[in-house]
Fold this protein.
Amino acid sequence: MSETELTATPPAEGAVTDLAEIETNALALIAAARSLEDLDEAAREATGRRSRYSAVYQRLGSLSASERKELGRELHELRARIETAASAKRTELALAARSERMAADLMDLTEAPAGGLAGHLHLVTQVREELEDVFVGMGYEIAEGPEIETAWYNFEALNVPVDHPARSAVDTFFVDCGEPDQVLLRTQTSPVQIHLLERGRLPIYAVVPGRVYRRDTPDATHLPVFHQIEGLVVDQGVSFGDLAGTIDTFIHAIFGADVRTRLRPAYFPFTEPSAEFEISCTICGGSGCRTCAQTGWIELGGCGMVHPAVFEATGVDAEEWTGFAFGFGIDRLAIMRHGIADLRYLVENDARFLQQF
Ligand code: DAH
């Protein structure tokens, strides 16, 4: 073996000294890392391709078998210690980052921020409560009914024929329960009329606010989940004039004295005669604009005298009792009153919107 070869192969002693230094440096770099990027960098410097560790590793091939075995084991153990230190540091950094994130996200819920955004009822809830107050003032009770209904309550008992388009799966969310197409999310609050009539306690003066569901794609004028309020009055000698006066009264209570109301003939299976009630457009005041399609009027809901078939389905004597009913969308009424262009704002949970009401 020549001189040159001997010097090219440093004694194992020297390598071991190197290793101690390599380890000290590597552990110092790892300990100093302040971020995951620092840590990756430290790992590259400690054991990467251009590292001193790698240089020592490359010497292995030129050592004698016993030296190679010895140094190989040392290198292996060194690497394991560096990796253990790096992975402990990684956990530590990840935990620190997490608590930093949590501290940044922390909200103090014990106090409204200065000048602040204290929580309040949603606009739709506010309008619902106003409507309830108006009707309670007229002597009505507030009633409720189930959101999951059978087809009988939602359609049949309301005199909606089996082939009526409203009954199709295009409009209705059916619930996979019992007989097919018999259990559904109510598409209107009108089925609560049936529950009220079934109670058998007459007369009835009731309003029923609640959520209803239709298979509509959300757009400016539709939401798949929205709110209606239903009214039902059943008494002796109730007239269409009473209905018209009731609608006029609550519209003025909600929209103010300047708004005009009108009824237009319409068709609903559960009332006869039926009408749609409209208010003078709240955007243009009745002169005609895009919102009211230049008509000056906005349709709010439907109403009419309770159909004898509805009385019959619920065992109420139609000779003795007469009644009227009405129903309309609360969300729609809310956006009309406040000049909001799009129903979807109501459900987007944007504080900048909600804060205004
Ligand atoms: N339920 C009807 C709808 O969702 C609204 C309605 C019309 C309710 C006429 C009534 C009524 O009580 O008499 O379109």
In short: Strands lie at 141-142, 148-150, 183-185, 204-213, 225-235, 261-268, 271-280, 297-306, 322-329. Residues 11 and 168 are 89 Å apart (CA to CA). Residues 19-105 form one domain.
